[in-house]
Design a protein that fits this description.
The protein is of the alpha+beta class. The protein has one domain: Orthogonal Bundle (Arc Repressor Mutant, subunit A). 43% of the residues lie in helices and 11% in strands. The protein has 3 helices and 3 strands. It has helices at residues 17-24, 28-36, 55-67, and strands at residues 14-15, 44-45, 51-54. Strands 1-3-2 form a 3-stranded antiparallel sheet. Strand 2 (44-45) and strand 3 form a beta hairpin. The protein is globular, with a radius of gyration of 13 Å.
Length: 70
């Protein structure tokens, strides 16, 4: 049985909206529009009024965009 090595807890974490905006360069409305279209990682429900994003998924999304540049 092959398992992917887990990232250390210090590297993989939940990012809040302000961090996602900083990393992606997009503002809230654009992030949510992309999510609705299936073009951005989905937010995780953290509570009644709180969401966050998996840092690994955001980093992977950014890397894919950089690799697809022409």
């Amino acid at each position: 049985m092959s398992q992917t090595p887990a990232l250390p807890a210090s590297e993989r974490r939940i990012l809040r909206l302000d961090e996602v905006e900083t990393k992606s360069g997009f503002k809230r409305a654009h992030i949510y529009n992309l999510m609705r279209k299936g073009q951005f990682p989905k937010a995780l429900r953290l509570g009644v009024r709180a969401v966050g994003w998996d840092s690994f998924e955001i980093d992977q999304w950014i890397a894919e965009r950089l690799n697809n540049r022409t």
